[in-house]
Amino acid sequence: IVVTGSDDHLWKMWALPDGNIIMTGEGHTDWLSGCCFHPSGTQLVTSSGDTTVQIWDFSKRGCILTFEGHARTVWDGSWHSCGDFVASASMDNTSKLWDVNSERCRYTTCGHKDSVNSIEFLPFSNTVLTSSADKTLSLWDART
């Protein structure tokens, strides 16, 4: 499976090797910057220049949740291995931990002095790694 974005704010999911389109998503109002599959493979998180993070459900064939709260472009999103949390990295120098079940932001990290460009959970832990344009990596405890 390959996910691609386009200038018209659509993303497409392609099956390999036959090249058939499995699903198309439309919902962001600006370019797409990243995507990440849910650990179970049933959902997708996307990040965008429109400052939002969106959760897409394959069985419902559409967006089921939009997280708003970043002030600038969201560069990246990542699922926790339990599938209940999403972390996002933004050009506003912060990252956020989103609770999918309560549909709200649990925590905002502040500490980078420039854009947070990527974010990733350490598998099966509460540790989040961020990388920044300030030339640093930071480890965060998602519980605090």
Automatic annotation (TrEMBL):
<feature type="repeat" description="WD">
    <location>
        <begin position="25"/>
        <end position="66"/>
    </location>
</feature>
<keyword id="KW-0677">Repeat</keyword>
<dbReference type="GO" id="GO:0035082">
    <property type="term" value="P:axoneme assembly"/>
</dbReference>
<dbReference type="InterPro" id="IPR050995">
    <property type="entry name" value="WD-F-box_domain-protein"/>
</dbReference>
<dbReference type="InterPro" id="IPR001680">
    <property type="entry name" value="WD40_rpt"/>
</dbReference>
<keyword id="KW-0853">WD repeat</keyword>
<feature type="repeat" description="WD">
    <location>
        <begin position="67"/>
        <end position="108"/>
    </location>
</feature>
<dbReference type="Pfam" id="PF00400">
    <property type="entry name" value="WD40"/>
</dbReference>
<dbReference type="GO" id="GO:1990716">
    <property type="term" value="C:axonemal central apparatus"/>
</dbReference>
<dbReference type="InterPro" id="IPR019775">
    <property type="entry name" value="WD40_repeat_CS"/>
</dbReference>
<dbReference type="InterPro" id="IPR036322">
    <property type="entry name" value="WD40_repeat_dom_sf"/>
</dbReference>
<dbReference type="InterPro" id="IPR015943">
    <property type="entry name" value="WD40/YVTN_repeat-like_dom_sf"/>
</dbReference>
<feature type="repeat" description="WD">
    <location>
        <begin position="109"/>
        <end position="144"/>
    </location>
</feature>
<protein>
    <submittedName>
        <fullName>Sperm-associated antigen 16 protein</fullName>
    </submittedName>
</protein>
<dbReference type="InterPro" id="IPR020472">
    <property type="entry name" value="WD40_PAC1"/>
</dbReference>
